[in-house]
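Handout for the seminar on molecular recognition.
Each group receives one record of this type.
Step one: identify the two inputs.
Step two: read the structure output and locate the region that could contact magnesium ion.
Step three: write two sentences on what you found, then compare them with the reference statements printed after the record.
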Amino acid sequence: MIRVENLHFRYPAFDPSGDETDENQPWALNGIDLHVAEGELLGVCGTTGSGKSTLCMALNGLVPQQTSGTIRGDVWIGELNTKRTPVARMATRVGIVFQDPEANLLGLTVEDEVAFGPENLAVDPREIGERVAWALDVVGMSEHRDRPAPQLSGGQKQRVGIAAVLAMMPRVIVLDEPTAELDPIGRREITAVIAGLRQREQRITVIMVESDASVLARLADRVAVLDEGRIVALDTPGALYGSPLALMERGVAVPAVSEIAAGLNRRLGTRFAFTELRGAARALAPSEGVAPGE
Ligand code: ADP
Ligand code: MG
């Protein structure tokens, strides 16, 4: 579904008339190769400035079409090349949800927020109604459809933002740190929505930038670690977080249970490799392999 081939991108120089030229800007993306299959959820993590948001925007053509700058290599979404396909057309294929809940909304009622995208595409009104009902159901916001979006909690706003993207019927949804500005309740709401979406719509491809590694361990099929515009690790959460030391040394967050396993291994000479609490509970349960509560 997604093919990123030797992608390089640098932003334009801030002041091109002075000494700064585009050529001495660093590469924000520096040779990204990535294939993501239909229906896959790829988690993305990495330190601030490692290129996560730039990669997200490159997936629907905002980079370079709205940023300008220098691009090399290609991004393909199915048969569409993001350099040649107008952003408005890309948006029907790849929907982006940004970190700031307000940035994803227009200030309308919940229903109108979600209907806005398909209305702009001149979708048949009856179909718009069906899409809105479906998208609000997926994010669990059906009862709030008549409320003004600005009155909602952060988590609810972000759920509406996700519904607004879903109503465009994209094949790929890109979430750029969708929980970063939310409280713990809002974060749980969003992770539950993503888990539910994947169960219901198994063909939708999801790219999720997330700094909470335990969320990635639970939701992602694979996780890509970015550093200075490069993918420095790409594997299943089990493989990646099962031996967390290399990531920890790079300053990349790993799930708390993976860090605990590494600490126990160091002190006790054990060989634990936990990526989720469930596995840790099973391995550490006192009685013969029966975890409490099972
Ligand atoms: P992340 O999302 O991982 O924090 P970004 O993709 O936002 O990283 O940024 C990658 C690099 O590109 C950083 O060095 C950042 O300073 C730079 N950058 C991001 N946006 C712009 C911009 N609009 N103009 C110039 N440089 C930018
Ligand atoms: Mg970012």
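Reference statements: DSSP finds twelve helices and ten strands in the chain. Residues 52-53 surround magnesium ion (ligand 2) (CB under 6 Å).
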